[in-house]
Write a structure and sequence with these properties.
The complex is a heterodimer of chains A (about 240) and B (about 290). Chain A is α/β, with parallel strands linked by helices and about 240 residues long. Helix content of chain A is about 35%, strand content about 25%. Chain A has one domain: 3-Layer(aba) Sandwich (Rossmann fold), CATH 3.40.50. In chain A, strands 6-7-8-3-9-10 form a six-stranded mixed sheet, with helices on both faces. Chain A has a four-stranded antiparallel sheet with strand order 2-1-4-5, with helices on one face. Chain B is globular and about 60 Å long. Chain B has a single domain, classed as ABC transporter involved in vitamin B12 uptake, BtuC, CATH 1.10.3470. Classes of the chains: A alpha/beta (about 240), B mainly alpha (about 290).
């Protein structure tokens, strides 16, 4: 690597992971993601996309390899310590505390991050400006929100941690087309606020519209990493089901 | 007569409330029924008795020492046993808690023998009010339990720690990625349960005497109360305890006193047949 090149926001080297007692589900992934970019991870069902992003978040144990966030090794840290190191994660489902109010969800997003740079009232004001509707329903239980509203709350909670890298696991899953558009617009706003986004997404067309790079994941391994504009040179079915090497 | 039975029942219920609360908090956050509640109560009572009777401390100071020792034991148990089994499922954790229960009970038995022990406290005349007889131990129990329940409610609903505990109960994986260390919350949960059980042990020891089976005599009514209230619901545990306490005392009007635990078994049986989520457990089940 050129010594003058910017430090990647997210740097992954030969990452392997799997569930206890099973084989590797994430198999030898290596990539560098530029700061303030959106990397879309696409692939067929069961290709290991969610397991990959859970490994980055620390919910699935790393067996081999390394994960660095802005040059700092995080692969040996607990999920909670990774948040302190600048890595935030929004799961696909169960992404808010349903039995807590919106206000409690937002409070919890920063309460245990004492010492994390940039977490505070200024950051809170910036994040809440991105999601103004949340401020109007502070006392509502998060479990009573619609899928789209829960997704916005989950985004807001993740951003309150002032992350360098935001991991999103299928943020549009189960949303109506209207909310898919709003969610993708929110992802772009997040990137524009200086956050690097790794987006796992089944909705390939929606992901392509906003991504700077696309990684195709098949059977837990990286099959292709390219620009969205270049992916039209490939047949997605071939990419997903194995004819292209 | 009936009024006296109801007063006695409410006090019995308050005595069950703290162990039920401890059981339901551990169940809500750590997701398994902790069968070591009875033996932890006994352990806490003995710890307090050592500080009170052998070291000469006043009972309140001795209870603080007993609570600290029992909380330390509970955290150590979590680190050595339950933390390693956390991902093994609730049945494994339940069996481990049964094992811990036997270990704690026998530590007490081997250390202090089977003879009954009493705290060094003054004996006072009971108060009489409108024909009701209320002794000092009953008043101490009522005041202590009400204070503890209020403190636990404030802790759970108006403090960052309580929010973190409720968040971990709601979704442990999400709590972890919000910066909440699961092991820390687990240790705090064990310690809180241990303190509540020690206080219960002290109140039970004032009400009767301390022996190695002290906690076992509360085990079935405590489970009945927690299940009746809805496992995982702190308020439900307290309400369930009061209902079980009054029902058990009322049963003595028609049953021999020694058979009153039939009420607890009957409550568990009826709930298993008609309302498994208990009185306040609907939200816990939905989660």
């Amino acid at each position: 690597m050129n010594s003058d090149a910017p430090i990647p926001a997210l740097s992954i080297r030969d990452l392997r992971a799997g569930y206890p007692g099973g084989g590797d589900i994430v198999r030898g992934i290596t990539l560098d993601q530029a700061p303030e970019s959106i990397l879309a991870v696409i692939g067929p069902n069961g290709s290991g996309k969610s397991s990959f992003v859970k490994t980055l978040a620390g919910l699935l144990r790393t067996r081999e390899g390394s994960i660095d966030v802005t040059g700092k090794r995080v692969s040996d840290l607990s999920p909670a310590r990774r948040v302190m190191s600048g890595l935030a994660y929004v799961p696909q489902e169960a992404n808010v505390f349903r039995s807590l109010t919106i206000k409690e969800n937002l409070k919890l997003a920063t309460e245990f991050l004492r010492g994390r740079t940039g977490v505070g009232s200024t950051q809170e004001a910036q994040v809440m400006a991105l999601f103004p509707e949340l401020g109007q329903r502070h006392k509502a239980l998060a479990g009573n929100l619609s899928g789209g509203q829960r997704q916005m709350l989950a985004f807001a909670c993740a951003l309150l941690a002032n992350p360098e890298v935001l991991l999103l696991d299928e943020p549009t899953a189960g949303l109506s087309p209207k909310f898919v558009g709003e969610t993708m617009e929110a992802v772009v706003r997040v990137r524009e606020s200086g956050v690097t986004v790794l987006l796992v997404e089944q909705n390939v067309a929606a992901a392509m519209r906003i991504a700077d790079e696309v990684m195709v994941l098949v059977a837990g391994a990286k099959r292709l990493l390219t620009r969205p504009s270049d992916i039209s040179n490939f047949d997605l079915a071939d990419l997903f089901f194995g004819k292209v090497q | 007569m009936l009024g006296q039975v109801i007063v006695n029942g409410l006090v019995t219920g308050l005595l069950l409330a703290l162990p039920s609360l401890a059981l339901t908090i551990v169940f809500g956050i750590l997701k398994f029924p902790n069968f070591a509640v009875g033996s932890t109560l006994t352990f806490g009572a003995y710890g307090t008795w050592v500080a009170n009777h052998l070291m000469g401390m006043p009972l309140i100071a001795a209870a603080v020492v007993g609570s600290l020792v029992t909380a330390g034991m509970a955290i150590l148990s979590d680190k050595l046993i339950f933390e390693r089994l956390r991902d093994s499922g609730s049945i494994t954790l339940l069996v481990a808690s049964l094992g811990l229960s036997l270990v704690l009970e026998n530590i007490c038995r081997f250390s202090f023998g089977n003879a009954t022990r009493d705290f060094d406290i003054d004996i006072a005349r009971p108060l009489r009010w409108h024909g009701l007889r209320i002794n000092h131990e009953q008043m101490t129990t009522a005041i202590t339990v009400i204070i503890c329940v209020v403190v636990v409610q404030i802790l759970l609903h108006a403090s960052p720690l309580g929010r973190a505990m409720r968040a971990t109960a709601d979704n442990p994986a999400l709590a972890a990625v919000r910066g909440i260390e699961r092991n820390t919350i687990s240790h705090i949960t064990w310690a809180l349960a241990a303190v509540l059980l020690t206080i219960s042990g002290v109140l039970a020891g004032m009400d009767r005497a301390i022996d190695p089976l002290l906690g076992w005599s509360y085990q079935i009514p405590v489970f009945a109360a927690a299940i009746l209230g809805g496992l995982g619901s702190p308020i439900g545990a307290v309400v369930g305890a009061l209902v079980i306490g009054v029902a058990e005392e009322l049963s003595t009007l028609v049953l021999p006193t020694n058979d009153r635990q039939i009420v607890s078994f009957a409550v568990i049986l009826v709930l298993l047949l008609v309302r498994t989520q208990g009185l306040f457990g609907a939200r816990a089940v939905r989660k």
